[in-house]
């Protein structure tokens, strides 16, 4: 079977590489020529550890090629994975315009049986809509199946997650389609759930919503830990050892960001609203997350008084370590609020870049921690890049005007930082 991956973003590129690694012949298709030209030369246009080596390996092995020629790519391949973006519309619903475009392209150019697999995160019922869009665009009636195969990889760990997933979910309404998909994934050793497309689509949203809920739960609890003078990290450790709870996603901080949780939680809430079902827990998950970064800023204000004309350094811009992605990053919201309050902001991140709207005179950017700390009234740690733990904090302290350290990820050792002479506050952790 030849595989076509449509959309060469995080998910598409990783999926293409993983199938090439499994020995399949894979083509990556995108509308953006610049991305395709880079990928052909073995160059990634985003930062994701491990992907570049694998890209060079497989563009060289001849198992992986990239193109912008959709008609030929659709004709030449039997299995087509849709990996395009499904961004939020202003009302929070998932914008399916790219999925629809791809479905129509497939319908128009198909020349025989195709297995169309949707990997993008899409609302329940999308498999049926894709089936219709393909049929309506067909020039000649060719047979096809549409299956759902949601992706669970994390940015920063994309390759590891895609090569060693904890489960594969296949939503198909034909044995032929689910059989082909199981054959494609045969060399991956993990539980495979074969279910209906609607169930598969909901499993994806439910998983992200639950993980987001874990984070908001622990974040809210961290706010209680502060006045109780209890350490949230120890509470989370004690809770997480119960296998029914588990230790992961109990790290309190400034809230979740990224291209998935905020968008997918919003889309699930909208689906429920359309069906007159109230998802009250999930609504509260959003409310907590939207105020969590402000909680850190309250701490800074309590310490410094007004933020106007204060020099505030931020360590970390990306929504999490090991990525340059700043979509919905809490750090960006923090910077916007600091600017509204007329603070002077300096930011250090090893790979993420400032977005155009933050390239203003009161914002300075550097990859050097020393530089951003010069004369600072406070430093706010927003992304737990390992490099921030390994810094010579004693030396850094001397560069600051006042050694105030607000750790938005509870990443540094509070005791050690206090011993070094910092005023240290984390989230539910001192
Ligand atoms: N980023 C993640 O970690 C992650 C993980 C799991 C699931 N998802 C989901 O997977 C989907 C893709 O996410 P992503 O982060 O890879 O998106 P992305 O924005 O990085 O990439 C999407 C790609 O699709 C291309 N594209 C758009 N329309 C096209 C068309 N008509 N034909 C060909 N290419 C087209 C774009 O140019 C872009 O390169 C989303 O639904 C997302 O929610 C993302
Ligand atoms: O204990 C935790 C764990 C995470 N986060 C934050 O949560 C956000 C999301 O982190 P993570 O889930 O690691 O990254 P994503 O790449 O957004 O991956 C999520 O979203 C993807 C897209 O749907 C899914 O495929 C993944 O399974 C799901 O983990 C980040 O801002 C983290 O800082 C916390 O605040 N506390």
UniProtKB/TrEMBL annotation:
The keyword Repeat does not apply. Signal peptide: none annotated. Residues 313-414 form the UDP-glucose/GDP-mannose dehydrogenase C-terminal domain. It catalyses: UDP-alpha-D-glucose + 2 NAD(+) + H2O = UDP-alpha-D-glucuronate + 2 NADH + 3 H(+). InterPro entries: 6-PGluconate_DH-like_C_sf, NAD(P)-bd_dom_sf, UDP-Glc/GDP-Man, UDP-Glc/GDP-Man_DH_C, UDP-Glc/GDP-Man_DH_C_sf, UDP-Glc/GDP-Man_DH_dimer, UDP-Glc/GDP-Man_DH_N, UDPglc_DH_bac. Pfam families: UDPG_MGDP_dh, UDPG_MGDP_dh_C, UDPG_MGDP_dh_N. Keywords: NAD, Oxidoreductase. It is an enzyme of class 1 (oxidoreductase). GO terms for molecular function: oxidoreductase activity. Pathway: Nucleotide-sugar biosynthesis; UDP-alpha-D-glucuronate biosynthesis; UDP-alpha-D-glucuronate from UDP-alpha-D-glucose: step 1/1. Its EC number is 1.1.1.22. SMART domains: UDPG_MGDP_dh_C. SUPFAM superfamilies: 6-phosphogluconate dehydrogenase C-terminal domain-like (SSF48179), NAD(P)-binding Rossmann-fold domains (SSF51735), UDP-glucose/GDP-mannose dehydrogenase C-terminal domain (SSF52413). Belongs to the UDP-glucose/GDP-mannose dehydrogenase family. PANTHER family: UDP-GLUCOSE 6-DEHYDROGENASE TUAD (PTHR43750:SF3). NCBIfam families: NDP-sugDHase. This is UDP-glucose 6-dehydrogenase. It comes from Paenibacillus gansuensis. The lineage of its organism: Bacteria, Bacillati, Bacillota, Bacilli, Bacillales.
């Amino acid at each position: 079977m030849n595989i076509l991956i449509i959309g060469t973003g995080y998910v598409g590129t990783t999926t293409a590489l993983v199938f090439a690694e499994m020995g399949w012949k894979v083509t990556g298709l995108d509308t953006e020529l610049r991305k395709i030209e880079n990928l052909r030369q073995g160059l990634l246009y985003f930062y994701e550890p491990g992907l570049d080596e694998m890209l060079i390996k497989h563009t060289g092995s001849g198992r992986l090629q990239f193109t912008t020629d959709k008609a030929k790519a659709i004709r030449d391949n039997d299995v087509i994975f849709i990996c395009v973006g499904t961004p939020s519309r202003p009302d929070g619903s998932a914008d399916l315009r790219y999925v629809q475009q791809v479905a129509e392209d497939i319908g128009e150019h198909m020349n025989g049986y195709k297995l169309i697999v949707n990997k993008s995160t899409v609302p329940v019922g999308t498999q049926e809509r894709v089936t219709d869009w393909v049929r309506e665009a067909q020039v000649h009636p060719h047979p096809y199946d549409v299956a759902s195969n949601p992706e669970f990889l994390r940015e920063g760990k994309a390759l590891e997650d895609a090569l060693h997933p904890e489960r594969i979910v296949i939503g198909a309404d034909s044995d032929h389609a689910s059989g082909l998909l199981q054959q494609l994934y045969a060399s991956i050793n993990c539980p495979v759930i074969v279910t209906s497309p609607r169930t598969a689509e909901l499993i994806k949203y439910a998983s992200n919503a639950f993980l987001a809920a874990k984070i908001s739960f622990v974040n809210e609890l961290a706010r209680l830990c502060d006045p109780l003078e209890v350490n949230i990290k120890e509470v989370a450790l004690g809770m997480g050892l119960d296998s029914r709870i588990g230790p992961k996603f109990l790290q309190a901080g400034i809230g979740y960001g990224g291209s998935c949780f905020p968008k997918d939680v919003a889309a699930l809430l909208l689906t429920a609203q359309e069906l007159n079902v109230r998802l009250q827990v999930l609504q509260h998950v959003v409310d907590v997350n939207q105020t969590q970064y402000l909680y850190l800023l309250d701490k800074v204000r309590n310490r410094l008084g007004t933020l106007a004309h204060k020099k505030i350094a931020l360590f970390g811009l990306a929504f999490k370590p090991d990525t340059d992605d700043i979509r919905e990053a809490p750090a960006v919201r923090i910077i916007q609020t600091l600017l509204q309050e007329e603070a002077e902001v300096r930011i250090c991140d090893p790979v993420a870049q400032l977005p155009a709207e933050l390239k203003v005179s009161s914002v300075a950017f550097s990859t050097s921690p020393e530089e951003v700390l010069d004369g600072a009234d406070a430093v706010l740690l927003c992304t737990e890049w390992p490099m921030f733990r390994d810094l010579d904090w004693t030396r850094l302290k001397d560069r600051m005007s006042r050694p105030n350290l607000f750790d938005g990820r509870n990443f540094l050792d509070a005791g050690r930082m206090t011993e070094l002479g910092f005023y240290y506050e984390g989230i539910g952790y001192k």
